[in-house]
Structure formats: C-alpha cells, structure tokens
TrEMBL record:
<dbReference type="GO" id="GO:0003700">
    <property type="term" value="F:DNA-binding transcription factor activity"/>
</dbReference>
<keyword id="KW-0805">Transcription regulation</keyword>
<protein>
    <recommendedName>
        <fullName>HTH araC/xylS-type domain-containing protein</fullName>
    </recommendedName>
</protein>
<dbReference type="InterPro" id="IPR018060">
    <property type="entry name" value="HTH_AraC"/>
</dbReference>
<dbReference type="InterPro" id="IPR009057">
    <property type="entry name" value="Homeodomain-like_sf"/>
</dbReference>
<keyword id="KW-0804">Transcription</keyword>
<feature type="domain" description="HTH araC/xylS-type">
    <location>
        <begin position="150"/>
        <end position="251"/>
    </location>
</feature>
<dbReference type="Pfam" id="PF12833">
    <property type="entry name" value="HTH_18"/>
</dbReference>
<dbReference type="GO" id="GO:0043565">
    <property type="term" value="F:sequence-specific DNA binding"/>
</dbReference>
Length: 300
C-alpha cells in the first residue's frame, strides 16, 4: 500500500512485519488508520522523514541483529513516533531479538500469541493519539474558551483539524462555508486579530511539533506543511516571529508555540471571543418576518 500524502488523511502506521502479520494488522485497522508495509527499515526511515507517521511496528520474526543501527536511529531521530515490537510466534532467536530491540530503544511490546494481544494492537493502531499536538491544542483552547459560544470554540477546533494543505484564509473560509471577505470582516468588527493570524499561528504550532524529531529536517517539514519551499517557510516564520527557521526550531517546541499562540492571540481577546460567532447565521427576526416561500439564507 502506498503512503497517503493528503494532510488530514487517516493516521499512517508503518510496519516492518511478515506477510502473515501484514494481513492481521490490515484487518485490525479502521477507517481512521492506514497501514503501510515496508520491506526494510531504510524504507521505514524514509517514510518517517517524508510523511506524518503515527506509529511504527517492527516484527520480532523479521528482526535481525544487523538491523540494530537502523532501529536505534529510528528511535533516536523520531522520539515522538511510538515504536512497537510485534511478537506473533516464538522462535529460538526471539529472546535475542527482543533483547536487542529493547536495548536500542523500543519500549512497547505487543504479544499476539494470545488473542488479547491482537485486541491490544487494535486499540493501539486505531486510538487517537492523546499526546498529539492537534489534540493538545484543541483541549487547551477549549479550556481557555470554556464559557465561549460553541461557534467560537469550533473555529479554533477547525484550525487544528484542517489539512496541512490549507494554507490561506481564503481556503479556510471556503472550508467552513463562509465567504472570505465576510469572515475577515467579522473578525475586524469584533476587534479580534485577522483570521490569517490564527491560521498562521496554528500552522507554526504543527510545524514546531514536527521539528521536535531530530530526524526531520527543516526542508522536509517545509514540504510536509505544504509550503512551496524551505525559503517560503523561513519567510513565514520571520514574518510572524522575526527569526529564521533554524532559530525557530531551537526556541520552540510544539507546546511552546501553542503557548505563544495563546498568549498573543487567544487570552488577550478572551472577552471578545466569548460571544464571537465566525459562522454567524442570519438574525432570527429576519428569517421569521418573511413568508415561507421567500425565506432564503442571508448572504454572507
């Protein structure tokens, strides 16, 4: 199966497992997850550098001692991506393989010789990652806006659920079903920073999180975030934070960039955001005063 490249695609789990295990793993995945099977660990490392991967599964049966440097590199360069050892059959070399995997940083073992192990693996590959930056951002901002209108909260949820390919406020407006000029006008009238500032900040939160993996270069993250070039990404960072991409990487983790977004764009405007509705529907009195045959949605 080919790697999915669209940004808000199902979570990708990359495997290095036996053919029999491939079939079982495929049967476990739901609509929110896609498995990508590779024939060697170099391919797995390539996927980690060029795609957003939620987990890696390494078969104990396929593991050989000469793979140890690749496993160590995988764990070292991509610490944010869980690595799982899969044990489906015990062989004479299984103990040595398990010991080597553990020594080189693989901390999670799923033993599927018992049916409960397959259930555990199903939960692992299909579960939303509670520690993902998108989920953390949504939880944090919902807490900041606990008493705000649901439509205001929904806007911030959307910032962290849209595809990475959504790079402009015009695209965002169309995505949420609002005319772009109308969306910008609503923010202006409410005394809130322009929506493009929120979208840009959310994108930098995601980029900073990806850059936490030492194995991900600025160039690779630039393309993962769908900037036209590394130079475009650097200009974007400079325009918002007045620093280059390399300094951005040194200074900001995903959580630190989220905190910057909160302090600059959310908390100072919390009062306005309490009643803000970026999806504003027409006033009820305007709808009710028209005969049924004449009722239309007020234009955005």
């Amino acid at each position: 199966m080919d790697m999915v490249t669209s940004s808000r695609a199902p979570r990708a789990v990359v495997t290095f497992v036996t053919p029999a295990e491939q079939q079982r793993v495929d049967a476990l995945t739901g609509r929110g997850c896609v498995t990508v099977h590779r024939e060697n660990l170099d391919q797995v490392l390539s996927d980690l550098r060029t795609h957003a991967v939620s987990a890696v599964i390494v078969s104990v049966s396929r593991y050989q001692q000469h793979y140890a440097p690749s496993v160590a590199r995988l764990v070292r360069e991509f610490p944010r991506v869980p690595a799982v050892a899969l044990l489906s059959a015990y062989e004479t070399r299984s103990s040595a393989a398990l010991l080597s995997l553990g020594e080189h940083g693989v901390r999670t073992l799923v033993d599927t010789r018992d049916p409960a192990g397959w259930r555990e693996l199903r939960s692992l590959v299909n579960a939303e990652t509670p520690g993902s930056i998108d989920n953390l951002a949504i939880r944090t901002l919902r807490n900041d806006l606990a008493t705000a209108r649901s439509s205001s909260v929904r806007f911030f949820d959307t910032l962290f659920t849209v595809p990475r390919s959504m790079t402009t406020v015009q695209q965002l407006a169309r995505y949420i079903g609002v005319v772009p000029t109308t969306l910008m006008s609503r923010f202006y009238r409410a005394g809130i920073p322009a929506p493009k500032k929120y979208l840009a900040a959310a994108r930098l939160v995601r980029a900073a999180h990806l850059l936490e993996n030492p194995g991900s270069s600025i160039t690779q993250v630039s393309f993962l975030m769908e900037y036209s070039s590394p130079q475009s990404f650097s200009r974007h960072v400079s325009g918002i934070l007045h620093m280059g991409a390399a300094e951005f990487r040194r200074r900001y983790s995903g959580e630190q960039m989220l905190e910057h977004m909160r302090q600059s764009l959310v908390l100072p405007y919390r009062q306005q955001l309490q009643t803000f509705d970026p999806f504003a529907s027409p006033p009820q009195w305007l709808v009710q005063r028209r005969p049924d045959s004449e009722r239309v949605a007020a234009p955005d």
